[in-house]
Specification:
Leucine-rich repeat, LRR (right-handed beta-alpha superhelix); elongated; 40% helix; 10 helices; ten-stranded mixed beta sheet
């Protein structure tokens, strides 16, 4: 029988071999193109490009690199001065990319046109994106409605962030209707929009039919007590599995669950 020290070394080696390799995170400096050419993504698995000032031109060059890349899983483009043109280029890169799972485009003025292009990509069979952050992106009702269509057309999104996008009752209602038949989205962040009571009623009507959604954030959406009550009534008949967590202005502790609305003491 081998000595205990040998056994410990063997176990340690096995643990090391079994442990997943750390993701290679790359900054702009590490992927800079040579003489204005295409970005060199190399062995990068995550691109951390917060406030890198890429603009539309840089976004287009990055999109070209992502089109054939089969390694990068996460791209952070928060606050990069990207508009509709850059967002549209990135959307085209997403259409045939099954590897990229997370894309952050917060604080980029992609507008309704950029959001519509991204939505079209989300509906493609080859697009593997699961997380899309689009807060402060000027999406509006038109962009939100396009994204709603994608949610009902094969999108694999699990997390969607639409904070502070000027989305009114029409866009909110479109999203709510899409979620009635969507079985993938787990989290919808809608804080700081203009859904109002009409949007609240639309989301309340969705609750008995959506089993996947587990977090809905509707804080600061201009709802009155009537809108809040409609949401609370919706929670009572929610079929979310295991339960739906709602954030809305005027609710106790700013959150309430369908489990509590059914009179249960604790969530499952």
């Amino acid at each position: 029988m081998p000595p205990a020290s040998h056994t410990r070394r063997a176990l340690a080696l096995l643990a090391l071999l079994a442990a997943p390799a750390a993701c290679r995170r790359c900054s702009l400096k590490e992927i800079q193109p040579v003489e204005g050419g295409e970005f060199n993504l190399g062995s990068c698995e995550e691109l951390r490009l917060l406030n890198a000032k890429l603009g539309d031109a840089g976004a287009k060059r990055l999109a070209a690199a992502l089109t054939t890349n089969r390694r990068v899983k996460f791209v952070d483009l928060w606050s990069n001065g990207i508009g509709p043109e850059g967002a549209t280029a990135l959307a085209r890169a997403l259409e045939g990319n099954k590897i990229l799972e997370k894309l952050w485009l917060n604080e980029n003025k992609v507008g309704a046109a950029g959001a519509t292009a991204l939505a079209a990509a989300l509906g493609k069979k080859e697009c593997g994106l699961q997380t899309l952050w689009l807060s402060d992106a000027e999406v509006g009702d038109v962009g939100a409605t396009a994204i709603a269509t994608a949610l009902n057309s094969g999108s694999r999104l699990r997390v969607l962030d639409l904070w502070n996008n000027g989305i009114g009752p029409d866009g909110a209602a479109a999203l709510a209707r899409a979620l009635q038949g969507n079985h993938m989205l787990l989290t919808l962040e809608m804080r700081g929009n203009r859904a109002g009571d009409e949007g609240a009623r639309a989301f309340a009507a969705m609750m008995p039919n959506s089993q996947a959604l587990s977090t809905l954030d509707l804080m600061d959406n201009g709802m009155t007590k009537a809108g809040t009550q409609a949401l609370l009534d919706g929670l009572k008949v929610s079929r979310a599995n295991p339960y739906l967590l709602l954030y809305a202005s005027g609710l106790p502790h700013e959150q309430w669950t369908s489990w509590q609305a059914k009179g249960k003491a604790d969530a499952p």
